[in-house]
Batch of 2 targets.
Target 1
Amino acid sequence: MIPVPEINLGGVLPALILGVAGLLATLLGLFVRKGAATVGAIIGFTAVLIALAANAPLRFMNTPAFSGMIVLDTFSWFFNLLILLSVGLTILISMKYLTDQGLDLYEYFAILLFSSVGMMFMVSGTHLLMIFVGLETLSIGVYVLTGVLPKSSKASEASLKYLLLGSFSSALFLYGAALLYGASGSLSLAGLAKYFQSGSVSTMGLIGMGLLLVGFSFKVAAVPFHMWTPDVYDGAPSPITGFMSVGVKAAAFAAFLRVFFECFGSAQVTWSHILWILAVLTMILGNLAALVQSNIKRMLAYSSIAHAGYILIGMVAGTAMGAAGILYYLLAYIFTNLGAFAVVTMVGRKGEANISIDDYRGLGKSHPALALAMSIFLFSLAGIPPTAGFIGKFTIFGAAIASGYIWLVIIGVLTSAASVFYYFRVVMKMYMEAPEVEPESLKFSPSMALALTLTVMVVLYIGIFPTTYLNLATESVKSLF
Amino acid sequence: MVTLEHYLVLSALLFALGIAGVMLRRNLIVILMSLELMMNAVNLSFVAFSRYLGSIEGQIFVLFVMVVAAAEVAVGLAIAVAVFKQRGTININDISLLKW
């Protein structure tokens, strides 16, 4: 008689709901002739709302499930929440985008939901197999979404580059997993943690750890593994770029944190040196390259590389405070960056014709509300109070100082001062300059208005009253330490 | 006598060949094949370790890697077809609209 392991479907309910909704959207899309995209969007958005409710009980749990393949704890709860928020906002932004482009793609929403299922398994995985399968489910979905525009040769090129470099990094990740398996005889994070605590770590184990680090660095776009980022962010449809810059980054950082703190925690001295160098390179190169961009999507791509650098500071700090800072930073970043990409989608118009920074000239006069929203997002990205981005940077830098990484913080502050320059260039263009030809007025759709209002309000709210959210972040990282 | 080291060296060689293929070859299909080679090199390591350690976990991992690699290559070929339809070439030196 084969013993049947306990199956806890309740714990993975949020992911299940999104998966079923994705299937439903695919099926219904076959029968609906016109407006299939709207049907897909409605199903997707409803599923996100239900999944948010189903995710709530996870906050008070701390149990392994599915024979130790995943764990249901506050950390998973927090990241599930982040993923659901980013998918929900992306769906709202995409509805307007697809209408503008005149595309009726229901697959778009189905694939979006499937890739968020991958993210959810990735953030709760406690076994390298689960993390790998989650990572690939999310990546393959995003490869397809990047190239979803049928006529755009830019989009297909971006998706090709993403696929090639993405699978390359997955192969490195896999090789790392294989070497760790050979060294320790286990693939579960608990088994690996035991091996690393034993003190006698072989070279093979260390190489394995290094390869995992490279794999994760690719996914979070840390320099020197960032080459794909600007091209892919530029070529992908604007809402998907927003989704990649927040959702994929959050999921990758979640797995990065869990693997490195939970199982390589005892080898921290080794990897925090490497991450120190990566963080410095990432901040400097990201911010410098962003200075000279004339395309807003490319500028935001380099800015997102720079933000990965700031988040890495929190990992180098290596304390619960640093990790909590990362969680809060990602929460703030989701709303800020998706908001910014919502504005990019609005201004971009049909065929993304207007994605140069010069297209923002005179926006302050023609669309004061949109320009104000964009300014708030840019302030938050630059880390200026009273926005959420300021508190995020403040917490992470504070944690690094507490752990004694003064130089790292000095570089961080200097580079973020440099970043103010390119963020403010857009604000200047919006308010101080006039366009050569007065463009047609932009049309808001209800979903877009909802997305913009939500993001602006949250960016300001959690920037002014951050305590609750910082406490939540602190509570969520407890299971890692 | 074939020992664990033999398998590991072979796997490392195949992996290096795959990396070289991805870096040096310009034909998209060959690059996709090289990526497959990298994945399969890892599979070889997994199976060798699994036999050596007497644990089944590594072999289970290999099955999943095979599934994932197949899915990835399916998407990769679909994208290659889309690119070929738009530009009439699959030489990656000619696919360079996006530059910094």
Target 2
Amino acid sequence: MTINTDAPDEPGTTGSDRRTFLKWSAAVGGTAALVPTATQLGMPGRASSAPAEEDTTVYWSACTVNCGSRCPVRLEVKDGTVVRVLPDNTGTNELGSQQVRACVRGRSIRHRIYNPDRLKKPMKRKAGTKRGDEEWETISWDQALDEIAEKMEDIKARFGNEAIYINYGTGTLGSVMAKSWPPDQSPFARLMNTWGGYLDHYADYSTTEITAAYPYFYGTWVDGNTFDDVKNSELQVMFGNNPLETRMSGGGQLLVSQQTRKEHGVRTIIVDPRYSETAALLGDEWVPLRPGTDAALIAGMIHVMVTEDLHDQEFLDKYCVGFDEKTLPKGAPKNSSYRSYLLGKGPDTTEKTPEWAADITGIPAVKIRQLAREIAGAKPCAITQGWGPQRHANGENSARAIFLLAAATGNVGIPGGGTGAREGAQYLSIVEPFNTELINPSEKIISVFGWLDAIQYGEQMDTFNAGVLKKPAPGVRDGEVPVDEKGNATNTRLEVPIKMVWQYSGNSIVNQTGDNNASIKILQDDTMCELIVVCDIQYTVSARYADYILPGTSTAEEDDIHPGENGGPMAYGIISSQAIEPLYECRSIFDICTDLAERLGTKDEFTGGKTREEWLREAIRQSREVDPTLPDYDEWKEMGIYRRDLGPGVSLADFRKNPKANPLPTPSGKIEIYSDRLAAMAEKWVFGVFHPEQAGDRLVPLPEYVETWEGPLETRASDEYPFQVIGHHFKGRTHSSYGNVDWLKQAHHQTAWINTVDAQDRDIENGDLVFVYNDRGTIRLEARVTERVMPGVISVPQGAWFDPKGADEVEPPPEANPDHPVDVGGNTNSLTSLHPSALAKGNAPHTTAANVVKA
Amino acid sequence: MAFDRTLWEHHAAAFGVLGRLHREPPSDEALTAIGALLDEWPLPDGPDAAAGLARLRCSRDAGEDAARVRADHDRLYGVSAVALVAPYESVHRGEDRLVFDTATLEVREAYRALGLQAPQLNLEPDDHIGLELDFMAQALLRAVGAPDDALAEAALAPARAFLADHLLPWAPAVLARVEEAARTDFMAGVALLTRGALDSCRSALGLPESDAARR
């Protein structure tokens, strides 16, 4: 006789009467715990004790965060569970067909999927508690969506659709159906488009200042040449560009820049306050400069070029306006050209000599002369900028100044040269009908950084005082240059304040915007913003400040399309397959929005009569109409990654070849070194309305150096806050994504980089805990004492999870503002300001003054 | 020696109840019912069990209600989001400290061998402490239900192996952390009582004390 494990005896059939068992079971009541295995049902022949299938299946998936790369990962699944994460195993080691191996983040994706802290059920802030108190009630999906829909109807009835705002969030920007960015292409935007629209924002937290600068220089966003085109260069100069840490995919710009370097050995100069990995591994020379002074360095260098006749006057005459008096647009005042600015004939009457620039930038004048001669003499020279230089209070001008350097040296539009913008890459044409076929009828648009102001001041905000803009055309997520055809500045007013903030797959409620402590204060008044909904997979810092939290699915739990990003000459795309069931009660954003649309009465318009999978197929079907050589959906899904070598890209080559036939979309059709539109706006724009007016709050027609609040001159004169604090991108996180992954936290400590000289003065040793503080907040973290950051500068990797502790737990230093908690997570936005930059009205996180003391 | 069906039935009862309380906090009715039964706890009074019963009596006498216990249970075990003490074996035993890891799949195998599986297979981890305790209850009940003593004795093998391989290496230590972190006497009491039940079962199954991770 054997024990029959297939059919357990019913209680009470033998031996014991099980009185005790039954009595206690009755007391606690209860739901089913372990249940009979499904394999037993109707399959009497199969022994239930048979081991589970040993076979594993490998699924193509992807890491979809906002790192500027896009990597496939292969998930090995056993018994319904991801047991291993494998890299791309296709492609070659050659540029153009390169293997796209995921970085340390993508390789630890299991730690996101199976993080014990994942969101599991819908939650609601408990009545009577404040946002951020973290007192939650778990509720059903029905209750959550019923209540959200009801509140949305209420807000719409009282304020209209423009009171509903989609916040910046880039956690899943690499997907199509789960897309969180651009915001107007996210599923919730589609839902809002079926229901009357919403208030949108222009630009993004990565590039607010450069995005605002482009129209006034090139007329529109333009890329640089691709990095593989550097093989045609004599010299490469990178301003704050750091592909090795900000484009980290094994198939991304990290590879493209290094491989090109290895094969062609083009001399490379890195201008950066920090000796980045790129400076260390790609650079031949590191030129440290004070943060935010790029425009001064460039003025000093062009002064040398002009003095020594090293610049490309022919290019400036033919393709640009405003370098010289003779090419100034009609109506521009006398002595308003860039040359006049250099020679001290402009309003500031200061000649921009290398000595002048040296004092501001911290780079010796002799080095500035050397650099100017070397850059001007290299034909051609590849000049690029990363997005650090522009993430400043004067970032619009830093960005334009670096463009100008490329123009003044005649490098725009030629192989081996570049536009002075960030490097470009090749892309496939992937059409995304689900995301783009419906139009938002709202005609106004605010800056991505303006939402906290719009919560507080709403209808008081307009173009002149807050950068509210009109869209150039219906449904276009952009702001029109606010100057009419006659050259007059135009004004658009917001009509209502923001009453609802929707945050999907993003951490910009608190953590990634700016001034955490001030943001929290604004958000905790729920008579202003009445509804905050966060949908994510992790319990993020932003989730803590929500009214409702909706648990979403991870990429492993979905099928999706992932267009390639920044593969240099290689265009590519990934189609992923669902590897595991959605965990807990998590649901896809498509399903969540479908059920919300049903409650709002627009379900059919939202789904368009298609399932999620049918939309994916439709995207590839329409893409193949544009490009018939693309594989079909099923083939592509099987192969995972599809790639195509498109070779080097040269930006603005058509314009260079024939500027009359291919004019730029500026009023002059040329590169505008002097912008008469900015001059017109400068007359009308006002400052100090919603934020106290400060140094640097002004618009200038030229890409000149503007000293600002908390800039290098202010900090070096200050005893209170003598350091410029910048926040570099970090290998252990993509912004804040992956910020709660234990592996990455162990491998990449959150530290404050401080120069050895500054540390010595303050008795700080490597590894000591320090406080970095200013009036807006205090962080505590480990010091990294290093010569890799220039004196007077502290660099704290951005994106760490804000973790405030009251004085009862961590006492702040006596010099710090005692009204604020100590953020032991070390988030840079505990120190940054909500003061917007002048033109972009953008975040300026690298413009931050602070002090440091040993903890 | 004859097979002591009462002893094993009592252990099954204890694990059944405790498993349920770790998985899901009790209703107000259940709290009342439990409060009335405390003097009849079926297992012997080791130090942890005695301390656990004392904390549960405190909870009853202080009138801790279901809402308070539910909030504490959520806070401790991260029912909605972040856990103070994750209730899953793999988080505490795996190098990666994740859910759905090696231990989870091993536990799944052990359940399968008795024809059992987690109620939310692949959606919620199999190795929740409440499910592991339920497995002990069900495994012991099979032994109790065996037709003769020899078969019953043999039928204890899966429970013995599971206790030694899975519960003892992590649960006593983690329950100590639960007891420390708990804000209610009820959850602290449940944690202590569970430690007591595991220890009593270990001893009855003839497993050495050194098998248990106490801290």
